[in-house]
Amino acid sequence: MTDSRDPHTRTDAPDAPGTTSRPLRILIGADTFSPDVNGSARFAEHLASGLASRGHDVHVVAPSAKLPTGAHIEVYDGQKITVHRLYSWRWYPHDWLTFALPWRIKQNSAKIIDEVKPDVVHFQSHIIVGRGVSTEAKKRGIRIVGTNHVMPENLLAFTVIIPKFLQNWAIGLAWAAARRSFSRADAVTAPTRRAADFFEKATGIDNVYAISCGINVDNYVPDFTPRTENRILFVGRVAGEKQIDVLLKAVQLLPADLDTKIEIVGGGDQLRNLQNMANQLGLGDRATFTGYVTEEELRRAYTRATIFAMPSIAELQSIATMEAMASGLPVVAADAMALPHLVHDGKNGFLFEPGNAQQLADRLEHILRLPQEELDVLKRESLDIVAAHDIQRTLNTFEHLYRGEPVTAPVVVQPPTAEKSEDTPAEKRA
After folding, report:
1. How confident is the model at residue 173 (pLDDT cuts 50, 70, 90)?
2. What's a GO biological-process term for it (predicted)?
């Protein structure tokens, strides 16, 4: 690590969009990218398109997935990006995961870097592509920025190869690999302070910046008209660490007079199991599993919901939660990892003990029974908190990092230090 900096520094306002410095040629290395649907892929996509909109020449190295290999122009958010698709294999225990071939990654990375001649390489994980582009960029003296979106503990959910008694050993090896790749970087970032602290402890790398992934808040439409139904929404991968089963159990515990509906947006390896579970719990047609949807369908889902629920225990930030907040939704989320940075207990929603379906149900019931004017207070607070995560702040900061300029991380509203609400009215009645 060559930068001297204080990652805890905050600034009161973002820089003005754009820059008077010359445009950069930026190479983003991503082990997952569109058409994959997950937080890391979405961040890389929005980062690439946002940088391109500012006049930078943006290239992305990513697995081919179902797309042709080689360099192609792809359009994201109306911006043209050059994407270098690597020949890749499908990981069949998982519903969409593909990976570039590890024994070819150095050769492929060297070829692409020599053709593109980037000013900076920004890799999004250490898995395969990140390892390759960071290794070859280091050899050539190119500035490197690394962002970690990965918890090895979660990756084990994608494999049935490693038995339980060897998982801690495998996790240790994965974090050691992360240290090797990220140690090559001139600057390392994570989406939140808690994610940065977790990464520092696991790898021994310090001075990690906490920089929000950011979203374009103007893309989402809050609706303050009185609700005609009680609709709970979850958006994300339908995977084990998301603990959607806890949410389904909580909805089943809600009083019948609320006539609550739940909508699960997203796909994943647990989709069929959770559909069966919803039927077994008697939720019937009150539970909707949409699978993957278009961006427009997703925005409509946010707008029509009453509450957003995020029971996951492994969020390094949660872009879906930020999108829900930009849509003016109160949020009930697990008190785990980075979610308390977004959900300020009693302000824009409530936190609950991870895995505690009854407490989640109590929090949901409390919000569903609020008078409209009190519900609107939570909704406005979500809008106020998420404003600090506008992607223009994120782009400003990464531009400075790419140039090796002194930076202060974008201002991010921190969770209140006051004690959490221990009892909601529903809990007191219980």
Report:
1. confident
2. carbohydrate derivative biosynthetic process
